[in-house]
Amino acid sequence: MKTHVTTTINGEEVEFLCEPHETLLDALRNHVGLTGTKEGCGSGDCGACSVTVDGELVCSCLVLAPEAEGKSIGTIEGIADHDKLHVIQEKFLEHAALQCGICTPGLIVSTKALLEENPNPTEEEARYYLAGNLCRCTGYDKIIRAVLDAAETMKGAA
Amino acid sequence: MSEAREFKYVGTRSIRPDGFDKVTGRANYAADLDLPGMIWGRILRSPHAHARITRLDTTRAEALPGVMGVATFKDFPAVSTEEFQSGEGSTALNDLARNILADDKVLYHGHAVCAIAATSEALAEQALDLIDIEYDVLPPVMDVADAMKDDAPLLHEDMFTEGLEEKPSKPSNIALRFELKKGDIEQGFKEADLVIEREFYTPTVHQGYIEPHACTVRYDNAGTSMVYCSTQGHFDVRAATAKLLDMELGKIKVVPSEIGGGFGGKTTIYLEPVAMILSQKSGRPVKMVMDRDEVFMASGPGSATRNWVKIGAKKDGTLVAMQARLCYEAGAFPGSPMRPGVMTVFTPYDIENAFVEGYDVVVNKPKVAAYRAPGAPQSEFACEMLINEIARELDMDPIDLRLKNAAREGTQTLYGPKLKKVGLVECLEAVKASDHYRSALKENQGRGVAAGFWFNIGGPSSVSINMNPDGTAILIEGNPDIGGSRASMQLMAAETLQLPLDDVKPLVGDTDVLAYSGATGGSRTTFATGMATIQAAEDIVRQFKERAASTWNVTPEQVEYANGTVTNTAGDDSMTVAEICAGADRTGGHISGRGNINARGAGPSFAVHLADVECDAETGRCWVVRYTACQDAGKAIHPSYVEGQYQGGAAQGIGWALNEEYIYNEDGRLENPGFLDYRIPLASDLPMIETIIVEVPNDFHPFGVRGVGESGIIPPLAAVGDAVAGAAKINVTELPLSPPRVLKAIAEGASA
Q1: What ipTM was predicted for this assembly?
Q2: Cβ of A42 and B292 within 8 Å?
Q3: Are residues A63 and A127 in the same domain?
């Protein structure tokens, strides 16, 4: 017996059918066609599936799809304004903060959540906030630089 | 390359052309493709480390509504013992097959036994529970030292050690013995004032790419079957799949997805032939995605090793003899990177007398795969730890000791060639001159330095460039872009074509659109595929000149090309590339350029790293407080991504040194197949990683490129290892230096 879910994803109302045991991650990827959110572990350890649910940063592999009912979901696909990249996305590119790019959607979603909570993070605060987002390629150096630069730039723009 | 050259694009920090898709979630990775009618495959895996399969009956599973296909080892047509080359290693085809689906024995916890395809992933999973399987459990062999014992249980009753003078009389777990020697090792040790020997242990580690293995496969009986997957070498996936399934090579098209990390671990295959069998049986496209625990249990990993090293030095620091005995775990089937371990162990040193023997040994763990400079981190760790100890014993600066003995142009390597121009001395000097090296340490901190050597490879690469009628260029490379190679191809092509960077659009072509290209591995892509790119661009420039010359009725020698415009030196005509391309159908058809090479002359890349580590003696926790990675790039095409390779290699090496290890219980079951318990470095575990790019050009590449991808993972093991020894005041002979191990060593030191 499938469950019918009505939710808001990146500002748009979306409906989908899912099995009750399916995760929000599976629903996004397999039922809604939003494959920008990635699965790296399925156990909440790598952060590749980071999304926001009513503004709260979560691993979508740890949220059941039916829990999305009536909520507002934010994914990587909703960060840019059409072709206009968000400052965080621009800074990731400028600083070469990605190599293979599989962790990038999750890191960008997490960084946006970080900067909404704390617009002026120290390097240490950024490192601890993003400790749930694993990257195996970069050693994090360029990611942290991109995050801190994005924070600076967003402050300047505000 | 004889003199420094001015570049317009090469050496700049351009925005990568694939970047937009990757920061917006548009980029498609292995698990992102669905096809109409697609079904899902799942794999039943062994719960035992070593067992004989006594019964395998899939009747009940097949009867479950929605189940559409089953695959077992019996579905492989008879496969031969022919060696199959891929990436940086080779495996016998029958071993490859038996690793993908077990034959009569399972040889490690997680070994694939049987696969089922069904209309949903959950249903396929449910069907796995209906497979009737029984095992006769055998004792597992979980350590290389145990596996080499005379009375060790055998993984393969028909395996006899190769590389011995005589074929041994009985089988063993030792697949291969290999040795290299030079000079007179006995005499060398006699000349030494100081001789130190020690055995070191390094654990099984995983490459830890964040993207699990995945594929979508569609079998087509009449036409071309399609494999969509994440791989470092799609041409090798095609060849392996064709060989294993006895299919025609030309009737398989492999489309590489974006690749979410590989580090050598995606140079082989696991799921692709299984999905092909399931697709053939079901008549449907089949998608298979590994879970994270499957990735840890049954893909990769890198070899655990026990390496004994003995080094003799004179009082003035001259190294006179170096000896090693290197024992590498291959996992369940032969083929550890023992050989490159033997070849690299002493290469940073110009040494007259050396003797190294290596053993490739099977154990009940997953078959190892290439991992970034495969084999070198383990062997060079042992050597570098000892070099630092010798420096301390002789009261010498460890960099000065290395400078005194450093390999340089003309040094006769143990493994064969004399070194061409290399940058080890330059790296050592750069680190010695760094602010980091001169900075003071605080209490409970230690500092370690280490060098690393990796050959780098060249090999076959194909590139084609097609000119559009508007004068822009499409560049097709055959190498999956794992760390920014489209950016470096774009820079090298724009440099050669003398066209604006944005006018060159690079992409990775599937196996049907381009001639063979070797895998993205061995630090070969920027070097070899870069050479093919330059060659293809030169081919285009030649045609620009010919087309303009024919238009003006002059010879190509009478025209010049610069910055997108051809000019007639015999008159005052000029044509832009856009004009030439727009009118190309009037001058002989549209323009394509090709570069097909087998690149020779890959330049080795030396690295020198410096690590400061702090230790909390109460908990045994050690962490890196400052880190510098210095390496010879030859020429950095895109400095940001070169730095990224140094930093990424350093971070993986730091993880290897401090945290990462496979933990097996006494039954040989892997206890930490997840990122929670197999802990790779987090953002909060690391400091910024300072980089120094040394550029000693490789004369074999038009721009001076050396590969940079691998060497950076070698030095961290000993740099961090030695820093921990200093910070915790312990002897370090085993990795990882995790809190329990450090705490134990502190306690033993205190009681000693």
Answers
A1: 0.98
A2: yes
A3: no
Topology of the domain covering B19-26+458-599: Aldehyde Oxidoreductase; domain 4 (3.30.365)
B60-100 residue pLDDT tens: 999 999 999 999 999 999 888 888 876 667 788 999 999 99
| Concatenated DSSP letters of B583-635 | TGGGTTS--EEEEEEEE--PPPEEEEEEEEEEEETTTTEEEEEEEEEEEE-SS
Q: Identify the pLDDT of residue A117.
A: 97
Confidence of residue B1 (pLDDT cuts 50, 70, 90): very low
Torsion, Cα of B531, B535, B541, B546 (10° steps): 170
**Per-residue model confidence (pLDDT) at position B2:** 44
Could you tell me if B735 and B657 are in contact, meaning their C-beta atoms sit under 8 angstroms apart?
yes
Domain that holds residue A22: 3-78
Question: Matching CATH topology for B19-26+458-599 and B305-456+603-751?
Answer: yes
Minimal CA separation from A134 to chain B, in Å: 6
- End-to-end Cα separation, chain A, in angstroms: 49
**pLDDT at residue A157, rounded to an integer:** 78
Per residue in B200-245, pLDDT (tens digit) is: 999 999 999 999 999 999 999 999 999 999 999 999 999 999 999 9
Sheet holding B574-576, edge to edge: B559-562, B565-568, B574-576
CA atoms within 13 A on the CB side of B387: 33
CB B358 within 8 A of CB B226: no
CATH for the stretch B305-456+603-751? 3.30.365.10
Q: Judge whether A17 and A31 are in contact, CB under 8 Å.
A: yes
* Nearest in space to B684 (alpha carbons), one of A132, A137, A106: A132
Give residue B699's pLDDT band: very low, low, confident or very high (50, 70, 90).
Answer: very high
- Distance in angstroms (rounded) separating the CA atoms of residues B348 and B368: 26
Residue with the two structure tokens 């840890």: B296
Among A78, A113, A135, which residue terminates a domain?
A78
Among B25, B209, B640, the residue with its CB nearest the CB of A77 is: B25
Q: What residues of chain A score a pLDDT lower than 70?
A: 158
Are A24 and A62 in a shared domain? yes
A59 interfaces chain B, CB cutoff of 8 Å: no
| Candidates A32, A99, A112, partner chain B, best to mutate (most B CBs within 10 A) | A99
Contact list, A121 vs chain B (CB under 8 Å): none
Angle A104-117/A87-94 helices, nearest 10 degrees?
130
Q: Which CATH architecture has domain B33-138+222-260+266-282?
A: Alpha-Beta Complex (3.90)
**How far apart are alpha carbons B104 and B338 in whole angstroms?**
27
Is A152 near chain B, with CB under 8 Å? no
> What is the rounded distance in angstroms from the CA atom of residue B512 to the CA atom of residue B250?
8
Neighbouring residues of B172: CB distance < 8 A, sequence distance ≥ 6: B148, B150, B152, B154, B159, B160, B161
Q: What is the pLDDT of residues B651-674, one digit of tens each?
A: 999 999 999 999 999 999 999 999
Decide: helix, strand or coil at residue B457. coil
Q: Cα separations (Å) of B348 from B101, B376, B404, B424, B706?
A: 41, 12, 11, 7, 17
